[in-house]
Amino acid sequence: MNWDWFSYFALVAVLCWIAGAWSAFKGSRLRACACTVLGLVVFGTFISLLWHSLERPPLRTMGETRLWYSFFLPFAGLITYIRWKYKWILGFGTLPSVVFICVNILKPEIHNKALMPALQSPWFAPHVIIYMFAYAMLGASAVMAIYLLWVRKNRCDEKEMALCDNLVYVGLSFMTLGMLTGALWAKEAWGHYWAWDPKETWAAVTWFSYLTYIHMRIGLQQKRRLSLSVLLISFVFLQMCWWGINYLPSAQGSSIHTYNMN
């Protein structure tokens, strides 16, 4: 299995996710779940086959991490749909996933077997996969925040805010676990748990920002729009932590976390 097959697997998966989103909108919960799961199986199969072909986890380059994000976004949408029954969430989860898939198709990267010694740690795969799942859950919370701020506006109720809260709780929990596994990996690979590398600094900023949202929701429950604004700012920080640092002058040539684009 090589990258040339990606478009075919992605097309089938996206069609399944679109069918699932449409079924959810029409009120057919069983069909919506079945189509979404089928799409996840197809996309997950490609990731598994690529992993086998590369003889390493497909997590080294930015394009490879987009693979996982494209997978986890519909997965997060499915969890949200099953738990809270928002019929539009599958569509909102599919849309950004399709965007990332298109980026990978239009801008393919070199996917070879090379893996630097530091990335051969057993902590590498769980650390990045945990982070990608956390990013997907927090991405779903950002979608919900946009919906509440600009569609529902002042009509959002506490139940809808609770959905944002629960997504953040799960996302931040996995982000915390990702930071802990990353610290253990860093200790093994470089001899220290934390070094205030640009990536680590932005990870800390992102973590504290989401923690601020949680505290605002507990202590300032009536300030819903302000809390949602903080949630969106946190998502901007998350993007900076994920890929924005690749373009920071301070990270060029010095950061051990910038993704290898070649």
Automatic annotation (TrEMBL):
Main location per the UniProt record: membrane
UniProt KW keywords: Cytochrome c-type biogenesis, Membrane, Transmembrane, Transmembrane helix
Pfam short name (any one): Cytochrom_C_asm
Signal peptide: none
Highest rank taxon of the organism: Bacteria
InterPro entries, A to Z: Cyt_c_assembly, Cyt_c_biogenesis_CcsA/CcmC
GO terms, molecular function: heme binding
Subcellular location: Membrane
Membrane topology: Multi-pass membrane protein
Entry GO CC: plasma membrane
TM region(s), chain numbering: 6-25, 32-54, 66-82, 89-108, 128-151, 163-186, 201-219, 226-245
Protein name: Cytochrome C assembly protein
Origin species: Phocaeicola plebeius
